[in-house]
Amino acid sequence: MNRNGHSHDHADKFCGCCHLSNRTRLSCMLVMTFSFFLVELIVGQMTKSITLITDSFHMLSDSLALIVGLFSVIIAARKTNKNTFGWVRAEILGGLINSVFLVSVCLGMFVEAIERFFEPKQIEDPKLMLIVGSIGLGINLVGLFIFGHAHSHTSIHEQDNNNHADGSNVNMRAIFLHILTDFLGSVIVILSSLLHMYQNEINIPGSLIDFLEPVLCTIIAFLILFHVKNMLIDSALILLEAVPDEINIQDLRDDIVKRVPNSEILELHVWQLTNKEIIATLNLRCMNRDINNNAVADLKNLLINQYGINSSTIQLE
């Protein structure tokens, strides 16, 4: 149980009116994505279609991202005596891993776009690409609805359970960006296929179509990188136990000394457990021997109300 009396059931926290836990959302999306991977791989081998085989391995990479997210949710739910804070950071770690995956995907899109600028690739079977892109678009639309709905209810969860909401938020945001990237990629595939199929009817030069696809891929990769950058940095800083950006450690030191005159700070450590859960330890040497428990209560109020530090341990000497 947390300090508010809520259970740390990280995997089975329900989201909004859909009544689906994060574990269920990830499991459903994983089944759809991995099934489509198998279908594309088998059909691609049967038809000797390099396009289908290539796209199937792209779906496999999406499945791996979902597996990382799912295992993060499962691990975060486990209770253990080995880690007194629990495994709430598992979802932060999962979000970090998937953010790195996203960066690699975007870099891959950049490289492929540059290659397409210099060596345009002709679509051999635009109808097949249209079918593949449409099915992928449908799967990603379902994923955007599932995870987009969960993301929109994050503030509700934060009121109930800060630890879970924050770790889950990072993890689910990373998954949402993965699906959004695939969704936009499917839109490009469909658009490119339609332009190739009706090139003569709409009288568009083939060179313009070949130029359009890498340009769109570059724009999408840039937008995804822009959004994933802050999430990647924030997750890394939390895991490295950096002082939160909103806290000026020197101002905190000055306020502590003002609250307890004739004192010396021996040790002060401030770090984040999750995005919203901030922890501090303070070792204070007091010259005034008349300091009592009221001073400790006053310091705790300072940490909570002025600096948003949820949990603190204060030792007076």
TrEMBL record:
Positions of the Cation efflux protein transmembrane domain: 29-240
Subcellular location: Membrane
Bilayer-crossing regions: 29-47, 59-78, 90-110, 130-150, 170-191, 211-228
Top-level taxon of the source organism: Eukaryota
GO MF terms held by the record: zinc ion transmembrane transporter activity
Topological category with respect to the lipid bilayer: Multi-pass membrane protein
Gene Ontology CC terms, in alphabetical order: membrane
InterPro entries: Cation_efflux (IPR002524), Cation_efflux_TM (IPR058533), Cation_efflux_TMD_sf (IPR027469)
Presence of the UniProt keyword Thylakoid in the record: no
Key words of the record: Membrane, Transmembrane, Transmembrane helix, Zinc
Pfam families tied to this protein: Cation_efflux
GO terms (BP aspect): detoxification of zinc ion; intracellular zinc ion homeostasis
Record has Zinc as a keyword: yes
PANTHER family attached to this UniProt entry: FI23527P1, ZINC TRANSPORTER 63C, ISOFORM F
Similarity section: Belongs to the cation diffusion facilitator (CDF) transporter (TC 2.A.4) family. SLC30A subfamily.
Protein name per the record: Cation efflux protein transmembrane domain-containing protein
